[in-house]
Amino acid sequence: MQAAPPLARVEGAALSYRDRPALSGVDLVLERGTTLALLGPNGAGKTSLIRLLAGRLRPDAGSVRVLGGDPQSDRGTRRTIGFVPQEIALYPRLTVAENLDVFARLAGLPRRERREAVAAVLGRCALAAVTDRIVATLSGGYQRRVNIAASLLASPDLILLDEPTQGVDLEARAAIHAVLASLRAGGAGLVVSTHDFSEAERLADRVAILADGTIRREGSLTELMRPLTSAPPEHEAVLEGVLDAAAEAALRRAGFSPLDGDHRLWRADHGAAGGLDGAALLAALRQAGVPAAEIRVRRPGLEALYRDVLAAAPPLETAA
Ligand SMILES: Nc1ncnc2c1ncn2[C@@H]1O[C@H](COP(=O)(O)OP(=O)(O)OP(=O)(O)O)[C@@H](O)[C@H]1O
């Protein structure tokens, strides 16, 4: 008997916009019930990969399959996919319920199933309190949740979310995370693009790090993080007062580099900072004239892995 196809399989996918390559040689397998976080700098190709998986674009080379079908040409396959674009795509003058009814029609749900489907997604996305509100009057966080709800009407197996928490406040972010956690608990597979490392650590089983249109690292979060759990901690130096040239040189010698434009916050990667603990490092830096107010010490996480991966694979234009 043939094994069931995975939830999604991308093989050797390449995509260009006009003549500009956006993705090349992308291979990816996503099993059912798995949440994959896509990380990468602006322009890395996250949205392009999501649009390929959604069947909104066709690869120039290679193939994209969802549950064994072609999401670009096969309507049945498309119905197993929920796509939540980065921008809010709702009718601002309609109520939440009216919007969801329109999307249920567009999803091809028969009339007798629509009411139940709308009620189910309203519950799943905790939108009961705003069912009859005009969408334009809702906060950005609520609008994002309605955007997600609209993608769930046909009970998709694969849900693709392009930066679902971009620009929302902490409360709305937590509400969206709760929705995604409940979808995952319900057995759906999720692909979530994000610039937020803590979001990826919290939600994902697997992580793919993209740069310049290729996947530079992909694997289970646990496996990818394992080498870091035994790595030495990172140090962040918070500065106050004037940083002169000699003090800056001392900071850089200790392995620090600036994190912000006005050079108030500096970070030494794991393994740098000479193995000193936070207090000893603070004393040594002050001795060298660095106006350090505080040293923060923390275990390296996904962000450290991301930096390592990108540093090991410089942008293609600058690679030798
Ligand atoms: N419609 C388009 N026409 C032309 N070029 C495009 C188009 N969409 C994306 N690109 C280019 O393709 C590359 C990949 O873009 P993509 O939006 O997939 O990256 P991303 O990782 O999602 O970036 P971001 O984090 O900024 O959303 C970039 O160089 C981008 O400028």
Automatic annotation (TrEMBL):
<dbReference type="InterPro" id="IPR027417">
    <property type="entry name" value="P-loop_NTPase"/>
</dbReference>
<dbReference type="InterPro" id="IPR003593">
    <property type="entry name" value="AAA+_ATPase"/>
</dbReference>
<dbReference type="Pfam" id="PF00005">
    <property type="entry name" value="ABC_tran"/>
</dbReference>
<feature type="domain" description="ABC transporter">
    <location>
        <begin position="8"/>
        <end position="237"/>
    </location>
</feature>
<keyword id="KW-0067">ATP-binding</keyword>
<comment type="similarity">
    <text>Belongs to the ABC transporter superfamily.</text>
</comment>
<dbReference type="GO" id="GO:0005524">
    <property type="term" value="F:ATP binding"/>
</dbReference>
<dbReference type="InterPro" id="IPR050763">
    <property type="entry name" value="ABC_transporter_ATP-binding"/>
</dbReference>
<keyword id="KW-0536">Nodulation</keyword>
<keyword id="KW-0547">Nucleotide-binding</keyword>
<dbReference type="InterPro" id="IPR003439">
    <property type="entry name" value="ABC_transporter-like_ATP-bd"/>
</dbReference>
<protein>
    <submittedName>
        <fullName>ABC transporter ATP-binding protein</fullName>
    </submittedName>
</protein>
<keyword id="KW-0813">Transport</keyword>
